[in-house]
Specification:
This protein is mainly α and about 70 residues long. The termini are far apart.
């Protein structure tokens, strides 16, 4: 299997919009990887930065503080 090559460019506004729209419509993480041409770690970290929920994961959700 050939190694995957990704472009390690900065995230553009178009990339952010595409990521948001795919998350809102419930697209799979696999599809996001293919469309954005970025590794999972990059997509996850960008989703956290933007406060976006990735479908099927709890990424982007803030943890609730426990009150004692």
């Amino acid at each position: 299997m050939a190694a995957r090559t990704y472009n390690h460019e900065r995230w553009s506004e178009d990339d952010d919009r595409l990521l948001r729209s795919m998350c809102e419509t419930g697209k799979s993480l696999t599809l996001m990887i293919v469309k954005l041409k970025r590794p999972i770690a990059s997509i996850r970290s960008r989703a956290i930065e933007l406060g976006i929920n990735l479908p099927g994961t709890r990424i982007g959700l803030r943890r609730k503080r426990r009150t004692a």
